[in-house]
Structure formats: C-alpha cells, structure tokens
Amino acid sequence: MIKLKQNEAFLVTSFPNLFYLTGYKNEDAAALVYGGTVYYATDSRCATEAAEAGKGRYEVVPIVKGETYIGKAVAVLKGKIDGKSKLFYEEERVKKCEYTEISAALKAVFGADKPKLAKGEKLFTEAKSVKTEAEINNIKSAQRITDRVFWEITTGRNGKGILKDGITEKDVKNFIDCEFIKAGAENAFDTIVAFGERAALPHAHPSDRKLKKGDCILIDFGAKYNGYCSDMTRTFVYGYATEEFKAAYKLVLEAQELALKTAKAGEKRGCDIMNQVVDFFKENGADQHFTHSLGHSLGVEIHEKPGFRTNDSSKLAVNNIITFEPGLYFEGKFGIRIEDMAIITEKGTVNLTHSPKELLII
Ligand SMILES: [Mn+2]
Q1: Are residues 43 and 149 in the same domain?
Q2: Residues 19-54: pLDDT tens digits?
Q3: Which residues line ion ligand 1, judged by CB < 5 Å?
Q4: Is residue 175 part of a domain?
Q5: Is the Cβ–Cβ distance between 298 and 341 less than 8 Å?
C-alpha cells in the first residue's frame, strides 16, 4: 500500500492502480486515498457490487447524475485538508484532459485555498515493486497455469503434445489462449508464437506460417490469475537442431543462469545485472545479437519497475519479482529467448518458473 503523510491525499484514476488498491476490476471509477482510507467513486452500474467486494478494504462513494468520478473523489477531501496540503496524482498516466478536470475540481471544492497538485507516481511504483504474500501467491498460481500449458503443448497426456507438421503459429496461440480460459485465467499479454526465421523477430505477431522440420519454436506467454501476471518464454526445436542453434542456445541459457545467480537484494542494481549479461555475450562475440533489455518486474501490470536495463539504477529489494529473459536473434535464421520469473531475496533469487530449460527437441 502507498504511504502518505497526515496532510497528504492521493487521487487515483488509472485502471492498474485502481485495481492494485481495491482488487476490484472496473475502469469507470476514481479513488481517493486519505487518512488510511480508500474512497472509491463509481456509478450505479457497479456501486452495489463494488461495495460488496470492498468490505473492509475501501469505501464506495456512488456518483449521481451530473457528477464525475474525479469530481466526486476530490469532493471527499472537503473540510479534511487545505491549501497547505498536497494532492498527489499519477503524472505518468493522467491525460491532459483529466489533469484539467482535477484542477477544476480542486478549485470548485476549495476555492483559492486549494491543496497543491503533486507528482505521486513514484509512491505507487515503489509500493508495487515489493510484493505481498498474497500477491506472490497469485503470481505463483498464474505461473503454475503457464507451466501446465507449456507441458500440454510439448508433452500432454498422449506424450506427444500438439505440435505437428503444418500446424500454424496462430493455431498454437489459440490453443494457449483457450487453455488459459479453461484454467480460470486470462492472458497477461498477447501471446507470441514464432517459428524458424520468424523467431528472430523478438515480438513477432503469430501468423499463418506453418511448422516444418528443423524449425525452432519460440513461445512467449503468460497467464493472468486474480489480476496478477506471469511471463515465460521457451525456445525449442522441431525435428532436429543445427550445431549453430545448439551453440547459441547454450549461450543464452548460460547468460540466464549467470543473472539468476548474481541478482540479490541490497547493493545490486538493475543495470548491474543487465551489464553483466551484455559483457558475457561480448566475451562470446554475440552481444550484437542481444537487442533488448534483460528483464522487467511484473504484478498487476506486465511491465513494472525495477527492471534489468542499462538505465535502471534502482537497487534490488526483497520481494521484487523480475523476469530474466536474455535472447539472441539471427536475422533470417532463428531466434532464442529463455525467460523465467524469480523473486529477489537477501540471499539471491527463487525461481518461480518450473518448465524445463535443457534444449528440447520434439
Ligand atoms: Mn517478459
């Protein structure tokens, strides 16, 4: 939960942060955090259900005709704070028209003695980066579903999985997305399935490309469970693997294991872990094929902070959950990415991803 001082309040308008605060899924709302209470302004379509769901967690303030979510949430503050106080808002998410509406609402409620608007995004970023036990359990459940779907694809009850000559990237994507729904989950993001040379495009959109012997198969996917994301990538081969592919695969796996071994809470920064992997690829003459960052935090959103990026100097903390996803991409030939999620601890990392990583040949 975000931490505020006594004379501070926070107006929340973005869906991810509303969900983070309330655990209730609804885009048409605004929330006001003040004095340890979350006031949730929504309309009559959701007010009854939201009040039921929010017992003990937030208080619903229903809007009536002519009122707005923002106006109603700001009005909660009347008589509570004044011109010496701060009202935080989400400066990285609020649209210009919403900012104008917030300013107008403050003026309407407080007149000249209105609280100052202040940038508050960092309060959410920091709070969300440290996962609670309940959040960790949701992410673990999401990953369990993802691991199971990977098993269905590659092995399944018949021991052969679903892959065969002529199956398309779209077919595999559809299979994954249906399995998520059957498991009571949804997609954390758009599933990526890429065969052969298309795997050299790190974020390929699934196409009608048919599977043939000698293709690599790159699948980047994740279930979302109770609103919490998982994220995993596996690359394997259909039929046979070339020596070139095997060597590159070994390098990606070694890079990932190196990062998983090095990351821990305390002095290590996101950029340190990223740079270490870049250096490792450099020593092996492959750094020009590693074209993206090494990883990102995730939770109610698929991309959160901190991350393993050259420009992220934030220190890793206990109960961050971050992906470790090095990749090497060879245009016109193949691409390889291996992605796990791990919890950061004082001693190191605890991997939440359990699908096998030794090179799989199907
Ligand atoms: Mn990822």
Answers
A1: no
A2: 999 999 999 999 999 999 999 999 999 999 999 999
A3: 231, 323
A4: yes
A5: yes
